[in-house]
Amino acid sequence: MKALIQRVTSARVEVDGAQIGACGPGLLILICAIQGDADDMPAKMATKLSKLRVFHDDAGKMNRSILDTGGAALIVSQFTLAADTSRGNRPGFSAAAPPDEGRKLYEAFVAEMRALGIACDTGQFGADMQVSLTNDGPVTMMVDV
Q1: 121-133: per-residue pLDDT in tens?
Q2: Which end of the chain lies in a sparser environment, N or C, as judged by fewer CB atoms within 10 Å?
Q3: What residues are annotated to the active site?
Q4: Which of 108, 145, 113 is nearest to 23 (CA)?
Q5: Structural domains of the chain ordered from first start
């Protein structure tokens, strides 16, 4: 699995002009299942992201996790994270998991994050979504497990 995370003060996702998910301070997590990802990958990614120290402590250092801060997460499926741009000008997405497998792993990841006690809203798997955010920092990181 791959994730692009952004520390946000707020984020929201819309489908057909209607807001379907949002979060306040916390993380916007764009997540992609890759072909061959094992069933244990969602738990590994959730554990990694829940403990990743990207929030400021009292001294202003990035030393606190989303669990430490009580922040929320907006989780959006993003198969384009699997893009191969090594040849030509048109990205290829063959590394992304097939839709049924991707949906299963995405839903498992969301369930794992919630099981860790993180308040989560989501996008709509496979939909054309519009995502808005206010990046805090800015802090943006790629995470692979």
Answers
A1: 999 999 999 999 9
A2: C
A3: 78-80
A4: 113
A5: 2-136 (3.50.80.10)
